[in-house]
Amino acid sequence: MAGAGAFAEIIEGDVFNYYADGEWKKSSSGKSVSIVNPTTRKTQYKVQACTQEEVNKVMEAAKSAQRLWAKTPLWKRAELLHKAAAILKEHRAPIAEALVKEIAKPAKDSVTEVVRSGDLISYTAEEGVRILGEGKFLVSDSFPGNERTKYCLSSKIPLGVVLAIPPFNYPVNLAVSKIGPALIAGNSLVLKPPTQGAVACLHMVHCFHLAGFPKGLISCITGKGSEIGDFLTMHPGVNCISFTGGDTGIAISKKAGMIPLQMELGGKDACIVLDDADLDLAASNIVKGAFSYSGQRCTAVKIVLVIDSVADALVEKVNSKVAKLTVGSPEDDSDITPVVSESSANFIEGLISDAKQKGATFCQEYRREGNLIWPLVLDHVKPEMRIAWEEPFGPVLPVVRVATVEEGIHHCNASNFGLQGCVFTKDINKAILIGDAMETGTVQINSAPARGPDHFPFQGIKDSGIGSQGITNSINMMTKVKTTVINLPSPTYAMG
Ligand SMILES: NC(=O)C1=CN([C@@H]2O[C@H](COP(=O)(O)OP(=O)(O)OC[C@H]3O[C@@H](n4cnc5c(N)ncnc54)[C@H](OP(=O)(O)O)[C@@H]3O)[C@@H](O)[C@H]2O)C=CC1
Ligand SMILES: O=C(O)[C@H](O)COP(=O)(O)O
């Protein structure tokens, strides 16, 4: 059970503590933030509402802990990460339970998220040992006018304090995808978890605590992003921000100082289906892509652009698969579960009403109970409808029928997002040409968009982000290059 057994010390009364200086603490604010269960719509948990003074202390501790950590041998950092990964996997049950209650993620997917996170940490430790153990050696005589009198040694060194802010939909996985790379590279880490998902994150942080990381190296500050977010992101003690979420990331990018930013933001992932596509393959990927975790994935298929001649057949296949999706509670492992909040359900409903007014074809009856929205396919969506451009982050899939592939590519590229996209065709040559023409960070050929496997590069262009994630890229992003040049008194050439 959440907050019990090995996790008993992280809760006091009915409020979960925050984590600073290697201890679980109550905030001096005397205030807490409620976490509402999306299914019951009642308060499930409470977390501390941390103060600015507490943030200042955490930043100071992070700075001094980092100085010692950067001097800890790389293999020892890796060893501790492996230990944390094992503890996290061992305690997957209570963490998954928190995910079910806080973000209504289906029970099995919640367990998968925790296990995947353990694997991500272990892989990060291994990758870090490989890539951080290597540097570069340059000699001067390759540049015109120089003789071989200078040896340049370059290596990767830590940035300092990394601030990690993950979103609600993968609170544990998208937290460790920042924590692991930051720590292996010799940085310290301050985590601001999403409010929905904070309790799962606190449990995950306790696994790092149990692994024995030094005091102050990892901290977890809880509180509403709207209240404490600006103070954190503009804090002078922060040397790097790794953020995943919505438009908030655009605002943070404008306010943050001259520090490296890793931003993974929203998407409107387009799925282009050609007339020669395997329609069964396309339909199953579209349904999985659009409706997994009720569409609350940045990589969800958020618009289908299908060639007219196969549109009827594709929509029929999609609809017959949608009819088989189970709708209900995350505890029952239903395919479709309540969306994260009432305001999110209202937003999705707004997009659906707009499409209705403007003449979209409803393939299923629109149904909503509380935060639970039944899966819905909207056919004959037109560019004047909001759903053609906006990200619903819910179980609704717009289908736009296009006359040509060019029209499909044009719609994809007219979006202000550019996260992922996919194309279904049996012709690999066409797939490559279309993939290259789609202005997105990744294009999947004959499969739905996906971030994983977690070591693949993952990035968005335009409003979908800055930089690239994925284990290797994140480690590199959380380091800077240091060079030492050895100046020799006379040219020297080694003989064989
Ligand atoms: N490209 C990608 O990899 C992914 C993108 N996303 C995108 O994220 C969105 C959904 O996630 P959601 O959690 O609602 O996104 P939000 O942008 O609302 O929140 C993300 C995180 O930012 C925090 N936050 C809120 N306000 C501030 C602030 N002023 N300063 C600093 N931090 C702040 C939130 O805390 P709090 O919860 O307390 O408000 C949360 O931890 C979608 O648009 C989705 O596409 C999601 C997953 C992956
Ligand atoms: O937050 C998201 O939506 C994830 O980054 C998507 O991850 P997935 O493609 O592995 O589900």
Main pleated-sheet profile: 7 strands, mixed
Tally of individual helices: 14
Globally, the shape reads globular
Q: How many domain regions?
A: 2
Give the termini distance in whole angstroms: 66 Å
Which architecture of the largest domain does the CATH hierarchy give at level 2? 3-Layer(aba) Sandwich
Helix content: 25-40%
Mean pLDDT: 98
Which CATH C-level class of the largest domain is it? Answer: Alpha Beta
Radius of gyration equals 24 Å
Number of strands: 26
Order of neighbouring strands in the sheet with most strands:
16-19-20-15-14-22-23
Main location: cytoplasm
Protein name: NADP-dependent glyceraldehyde-3-phosphate dehydrogenase
GO molecular function: glyceraldehyde-3-phosphate dehydrogenase (NADP+) (non-phosphorylating) activity; lactaldehyde dehydrogenase (NAD+) activity
Family: Belongs to the aldehyde dehydrogenase family.
Question: What structural keywords apply?
Answer:
496 residues, 14 helices, 7-stranded mixed β-sheet, 6-stranded mixed β-sheet, binds NADPH dihydro-nicotinamide-adenine-dinucleotide phosphate, 26 strands, 2 domains, globular, 38% helix, Aldehyde Dehydrogenase, Chain A, domain 2, Aldehyde Dehydrogenase, Chain A, domain 1, alpha/beta, binds 3-phosphoglyceric acid
